[in-house]
Structure formats: structure tokens, C-alpha cells
Amino acid sequence: MLPKTELYFNGLVWLSALLFASYHVYEAGKYFEFSDYAEDFEDGWLWNLKKDCADYEWQMWLNLLKSIYPWFFVHLIASEITRWMFLEAVPICYFVTTILVVLNAFGPEICLIFISQVCLYYLALQTRSTIVVWILSVLLLYAIYGFRYGLSYLLVSIGLTDHTLYLNTAVVSAWILLKCISFCLDHINGKARIEKNFDVFISLLGYTFYLPLFFLGPFMMYEDYENGVSRRFKIWNRERLASLTFNVLRYTFWMLVLDVFLHFFYIHAFEYKLDYLAIYGLTGTLARAENYDAPPPPACVCYMYCDSQLWRSFDIGFYSFMKRYIYDPVLGENKTFWRRLVASGVTFCYVFLWHGFSENIFLWSLLNFIELSLESIMRYISKTHMFQVWVNNTFSNNNQKRLLALCFAPFSIFGIHFNAYMYCPGEGGGVINSQFLEGNWLFNFIFIILAYNFCITAMEISRWKQRKHLITTKYQ
Fold it and tell me: Checking phi first, is residue 309 left (phi over 0); if not, alpha (psi -120 to 50) or beta?
């Protein structure tokens, strides 16, 4: 372990840099001419301050949650009573409850779209072909995001012109698509229980229309759903009820913190990680209350020093989907270095398709693939016998840790700048990256030093969490 003095110094430098940057973002917000950016701000509820509403995704999620929040508890009560009285009817209960919510929130037309999507996958499952399932998935993604006469055109043609309704429908359709793929591939590959055709269809409806994870995620694999839905009713003791209450209040508190934050920091990219923590934490809590093994919420990004760690620990459900259904099948048994790169490339093609057909998503996916490839090359070199002999003969254990942090410092910088294309659509990502590429040498040198401080501190935090068994290995 590194000397405590060194660890405290690096941590202090890192924390000071974060506070310094946050302070200047706050100060910059005072100079906004709100009239020039009227669509990005609204009157806040705190001290007559303006509130940043530029993140349409968070505003959309928040409004949706307000309308469906009571239904979560209706679902929980109804499903637990059904589980107690007639276990086999639980999937039907899930489907009926969610249909009522969709009818109330979106209307019958959207409800029909969701059911039709599930029916298409049920028909694809009858072919017992993984190729048919994947072709259908790509075509549906193209219809949702890219096709001129796809989902957007369909909604307008039936008189539903509200853009927010289209966005909500597209997001839910994308979640349904992941669940349908998981369901079909698990049945085709023999990883699911053998059922009669009608029972298979009911199981598919119950899984895809499971309310806590239906609108906002996270993704839960069918295997985990199947294990949970077959569990018999468990008495609600004081401990179980207290856990549910505590976690609901906990993640609701983080939503409130985020809403307060937006009154002071006018940069929606800053809250990108916190909104997923609050949403995935809340919906996952409801699923775990029913004894489902739902993916945990995103880990804190403050100790994620490389892109591979970020992908494994942020949207854990989506990562498990990509690894199980795309990366591992493409990789196969021939686990060579080049085969891993091909598997990673195919996976990021799907990442691009699932997140939407736009230029900034393409750049974000491509640059993340390049960074992960460079990271894999570095790891490959570090595992060679010649390199390990040289390192062990040249550096002490602590100096090896410092060398590793120095090597990962550029990757942490790349990760920040590459992800700007995701956080800042349009020209925002290019503007942020140009500041680094065209900045003076002193600024970039300081940036690299701070990246080193971040990496060596984050590595020690990760090692500490592993020693304390605070990092789950199920989804790694």
C-alpha cells in the first residue's frame, strides 16, 4: 500500500481540483443572459433562482415519474396478493397493471404499439433462429430512430404530434427490445424453463411489462426475472418493509438533491451520473422488494479511472446484456487478442444502434471503442513475460502502482473528452475537445498531473473496495 501521506496528498489535490472547477462553473452561471437561452431555463422553486432544464431526458423522466409514482405501490400490492393466492398468475398481474398505467399515461395507441412489438418477437421465437431475432431487432431500432416513415411518422399520422410522447415511446420501445431479445435467446439456447406455447407468451408479456423496470430501466436479464417470478410469497416482516421504505426515501432524496443542484449549476452534463443513480436506484429498489435480483445502481464515477471500468460499473444491466448476448457469442472459444477486438467492435456497433442514429452517438461509440482497444493493447503488453520481468526487476511494488497510474492518466483524459459527445449533443462535444487539443502546453500539463492524482487515488479506492468485498463480481 502507498504511504498514507502520499494518498492523502493526491486525494487532496484531486478534491481541490473538483471544487475549483465546480466553483467556476457556478460563477459562470451568474453571467448567463437568460433571455438568450429561454428554452434552457425555467423559473425555479428555490429562492427565485432560474433552474437549468436543458437536459430534456431528466425533465422527461421526472414528469413521467410524477404521473406513475403511485402506480408502483398499486403494482406492489396487487402482485404480492397475487403471488400469495395464485403464483402462476403473477405474470398476468404484471401485464394488466402495466397496461392500465400505459393507457393512463400514453393512451391506447401507444399501448398497441408496445404489445405489437412483443408479438413480433413471439413470432420470431417460433423460428428458433438467433439470426431472425437479431434481424428483427435491428429493423425495429431503425424504425424507432432512423427510418423516415418509422415510429415518429406513425405517431404523427394518427394525430399524436407531441415530441415528448415520441421520446417516451422510443425509450420504452428500446427497453422492451432488450428484454425481448433476452427472452428469445434464452429460450432458443435452452437457458430458460421449457413451457407450453401459451405459457411462453404469457411469460414474455409478464417479463416485458414488469412495471418497476418498464419505463425507465434498468435492464434485468430474463434469467434473473425467471428466478424471481417463480418464488413463493414471503411474509413482509419489519426488516423487509424498513428496507423498502429507507431505499425509496434514499433515492427520492437524491432526486431532490439533483433538483436543487440545477438551481446553482447551469450545466446539465454535470448531473448525468446522479440522475441515473436516482432513477435506477428507485426502480431497482422496487424490484428487489419483490425479491428480484435487479442490477445495482451505477457506482460512483469518482473512482473509475478507465473506460472499461466505467462500462462495467455504470449501466450494469446494459453491460450484462452486451456481454452475454453480443460480446461472448462473438468471442466464442477462440479468445485471442484480435478476436476480442472484433467482439468489442461488434458490441459497440449495437451500442450505437440502441442509443440512436445520430452523429454524436456515432462519434461517442467509435471513440469509446478506440479507447477500449488501446486500453486492451496496453493490458496485453503488460501481461507479456518480457514486460513483467522488466517491471519486477526495475520497480518496487509502490513504484509499479505509480507507473500504472501514470499510464492510465491519458485514458482518464480521453474518457472525459470522448464522453463529451454523449453529454453535449451537437457541437458541444467538439467545442470541449478543441479546448484541450488547442490549449496551451501549461494547461495540458496541469491537466495530466491532475489526471495522475485522480488515477492513483481512484486505484487505491478500488483496491480498498475489493478488499472489503464492496464490488460485486456477478456482472463483471
Answer: alpha
